[in-house]
């Protein structure tokens, strides 16, 4: 199987693991939609992708906002001509100093903080994907 000529959208692609995934996919022949909340980092990654001879587009989106995820998908389809691969790499981590001495249990009502604390057993995370 080859991904040459495919279009990939990678969330959290401005740095870290997301950047690495986006660059690997580009090296393997995919065009990349770089999606992140940091516009400066996105621009750097897009430039690296283009240096590899692949097309790149950027889109600022917060993956905790469902409408922004759908807008990123629409942007990708319009600018790169489709969407074949979606990598849901972006994560949301919130550190709550009030939890430090609770032995891992929540020290506040669950609905007080709408974002997830990764590793928190009481956390409910939603994965948002695009499909036909």
Write the layout of secondary structure elements.
Blueprint lengths: L6 E5 L4 H12 L3 E6 L2 H13 L4 E5 L5 H15 L4 E3 L45
Parallel strand pairs: 1-2, 1-4, 2-3
Can you give keywords for this protein?
single chain, 132 residues, alpha/beta, Rossmann fold, 4-stranded parallel sheet, 4 strands, 30% helix, 14% strand, disordered C terminus
Describe this protein's structure.
By secondary structure, this protein is α/β, with parallel strands linked by helices. The protein has a domain at 7-87: Rossmann fold (3-Layer(aba) Sandwich). Helices cover 30% and strands 14% of the residues. The chain contains 3 helices and 4 strands, in the order βαβαβαβ. It has helices at 16-27, 39-51, 66-80, and strands spanning 7-11, 31-36, 56-60, 85-87. The chain has a 4-stranded parallel sheet, with helices on both faces. The radius of gyration is 17 Å and the shape is globular. The two termini are 21 Å apart.
Please report which band the strand proportion falls in: under 5%, 5-15%, 15-25%, 25-35%, 35-45% or over 45%.
Answer: 5-15%
Structural class: alpha/beta
> Distance N terminus to C terminus?
21 Å
CA-based gyration radius: 17 Å
Which segments are poorly predicted (pLDDT under 50) over 5 or more consecutive residues?
Answer: 98-132
Helices and strands, in order, run as: EHEHEHE
* CATH architecture assignment name of the domain at 7-87: 3-Layer(aba) Sandwich
Q: Mind summarizing the main beta sheet?
A: 4 strands, parallel
CATH superfamily of the domain at 7-87: NAD(P)-binding Rossmann-like Domain
| CATH class descriptor name of the domain at 7-87 | Alpha Beta
Which fold name fills CATH's third level, the topology of the domain at 7-87?
Rossmann fold
The residue fraction in helices comes out at: 25-40%
| Mean pLDDT over the full residue set | 79
Shape: globular
Q: What spatial order of strands do you see in the largest sheet?
A: 3-2-1-4
Q: Would you count the extended β strands for me?
A: 4
The total of helices stands at 3
